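Reopening this one. Same input as before:
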Amino acid sequence: EGRDDTLLKNIFYLEEPADSGKSTTRRKGKQPDDESGDLDDDNPPPPTGSPISVKKIAGGFSISSRENDGAPVFEIGVEVAYEVRRGNPFKKYERFDFALDAKPIMIAAEGATYQSEGNKLQVRPTRSDFSVKVTGFDTHRDLAIRAVPRVQESKDAQKV
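Same output, byte for byte:
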């Protein structure tokens, strides 16, 4: 009859906080006085920017250059697929979904040349301010886009 607070005491338990109000449990491998390896959460490191910008547009996507102080982009490898509910969309790509080298897909490039086959596109910029627009995709499906820029290595760079 009534509530028994000790009924499941051996299965479920709560730690009582110490008198100071702080929990006495520690993360494994962390010492409270050890500051080596701790990053200041208020000042995270600046993000490394990509030399390209990939944006969603009506019926497709665009890839363009972004201002950067690094080496110029030599080539961009692009892979496109429709998103899937489960799994890797790039591995589940089927040619009957679309082909970048066939209609209704249209590719317009300014300041760049390109080659396409299946769901892969190789873009080679000819100017520092290039732009590539790819349209003609099913507007009722979401696109997964993987764009990997390759920058030209400096002639002074040493091979390791």
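So the earlier flakiness isn't reproducible anymore. For the record, Confidence is low (pLDDT under 50) at residues 34-40.
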